[in-house]
Amino acid sequence: SSGINAEYGDKRKYGKSITKADCTKEGGSWVKFNSFLEVLTDVTTEADCKVTAKSQGDNNIIWDKLRSDDDSKVCIVQAPTMQCRQAPWTRVNHLGNADNYDNQNPNASRIELDLPYFPSGEAKRCVLRIRYNISTGDYNGWKTDASSNNDDDVISNNPTIDVFGDGNGITLALNTAQTGRVFQDRSHVFEILPRTEAMEGKTMYNLNVMGKRGNLEQTVPSTEYDFVPSSLAITTDDLVHVQWTGSNTHNNNNDGNAGEGTDGTDRHNLMQMSGDISGSYPYTIEEANFWNNVESLTDPEATGVDIAIGLASSGHYCAKSGTDICPASESLDEKETKMDDKMNNAPASYSGHVLKFKKACSINYLCTRNNSFSNRSQKGSIWVRESSKAEVKKRAEMKDKSEMK
Questions:
Q1: For the chain, what percent of residues have pLDDT higher than 70?
Q2: Could you report the per-residue pLDDT of 11-63, keeping only the tens digit for each?
Q3: 316-338 pLDDT, tens digit each
Q4: Distance between CA atoms of 9 and 314, rounded to whole angstroms?
Q5: Per DSSP, what are the bridge partners of residue 23?
Q6: Using an 8 Å Cβ cutoff, are 219 and 252 in contact?
Q7: In the prediction, which pLDDT does 162 show?
Q8: Which residue in 5, 142, 149, 379 has a CA-CA distance of 20 to 30 Å to 332?
Q9: pLDDT of residue 9
Q10: CA-to-CA distance for 330 and 309, rounded, in angstroms?
Q11: Which residues are CB-neighbours of 297 under 8 A, at least 6 positions away?
């Protein structure tokens, strides 16, 4: 409802009504809005907008007004359809592992989302807001709002119930400040970068880290460090972006700082394990043969050894001897400042590599700093199988060779 509400003066330029009829009674104008990801300002005609819409399978693109009272139409990339689904099941008042959507082994409660795609090819800042609610069945949550505050007929604080009928009641431990409210409201800002031509049309998985510094007791209600997803099964058609974020200035409010390296700091790396997932030792860079199976789409000149060095050092060394993306002065061969054995002088955050896999392969990997045998495991696995297209091509090649014989 558009218009000035006298109750709020200039502070509020829209009405209180949520229906068109009530808005009209309020003396306002009912204005409809198109929710959008972005407006394609370089597409200036309806015909060109329709052509763009046909070429974009990931978004719904329309030629319309942003507001119903606008004078002209523009090419609008509409926001994705909202997902509304039941949350993973967890034990009541327990913030630990949950039965997630994949019906596999329990993991920390999560929701898997596709990042939005922006046809303009421009970098975009996005905000992720996370909240969790506590609700009660003691009143109708759909018909109760702030007007019921302090109304004991709806629900009362620590009520006394005369359960025996003798006038001597029992008090219920019921804090109405805790019913029907939001906890742990968190907002995070991140940037989505445009894909390169080699990444177009590919499914890309984000391999990141979760958790915080500390042991099991100190990190509650969060969790200790771990890779996420810690198990990933993909095909050679897919891509994986390995990256992570961290801090050098944690304030754990005296909750505890259990961990390796300098107090109050995060560090992560990723190295191929020398055995199965139950072990604790990595291969050396020279021994780690998994990296012969990958190439980087963010640093096309990087060899498998370059990729392994970057991931093992969290970017302290960006390659062995330098590439077009990695200055030689920051490489393992030439960097004057060598990495500390606890990674204290390595970057807390690392943009990593977008990896493409040349053939079917697998890896078990770990973080050398945080995989503390006594109380935590920061490990993961990736299994890569041939894509259906590659399998068909390989069978055809094998058939051709057999016929030639």
A1: 88
A2: 446 677 888 998 889 888 898 999 899 999 999 999 999 999 988 767 899 99
A3: 999 999 899 999 999 999 999 99
A4: 54
A5: none
A6: no
A7: 92
A8: 379
A9: 43
A10: 12
A11: 196, 198, 199, 239, 353, 354, 355, 356
Which helix (DSSP H) or strand (DSSP E) does residue 350 occupy? strand 350-357
Classify strands 294-296 and 350-357 as parallel, antiparallel or unpaired.
antiparallel
Cα 111 to Cα 373: distance, rounded to the nearest angstrom: 29
Rg (CA), the chain: 28
- Return the residue matching tokens 């990723």: 270
Calpha distance 26→10 (Å, rounded): 16
CB count, 10 Å around CB of 229?
19
Report the distance separating Cα 239 and Cα 354, nearest Å.
7
Q: If DSSP codes are grouped into helix, strand and coil, which group holds residue 138?
A: coil
Q: Quick one: tokens of 153?
A: 């007929």
According to DSSP, the residues that pair with 272 across neighbouring strands are 365
Query: Between β-strands 61-64 and 74-78, what pairing exists: parallel, antiparallel or unpaired?
Result: antiparallel
| Rounded distance between C-alpha atoms, residue 286 and residue 304, angstroms | 10
Spatial separation of the C-alpha atoms in residues 364 and 232, rounded to whole Å? 11
What single string gives the DSSP state of each residue in 242-307? EEE---S----TTS---SSSSTT------EEBSS-TT---BPPTTT--GGGGEEESSSTT--HHHH
Sort residue 401 into left (φ over 0), alpha (ψ -120 to 50) or beta: alpha
- From CA 74, how far away is CA 41, in angstroms rounded? 8
CA distance 91 to 105: 16
* CA–CA gap between residue 384 and residue 387 (Å, rounded): 9
Burial of 357 (0-12, 13-18, 19+ CB in 10 A): buried
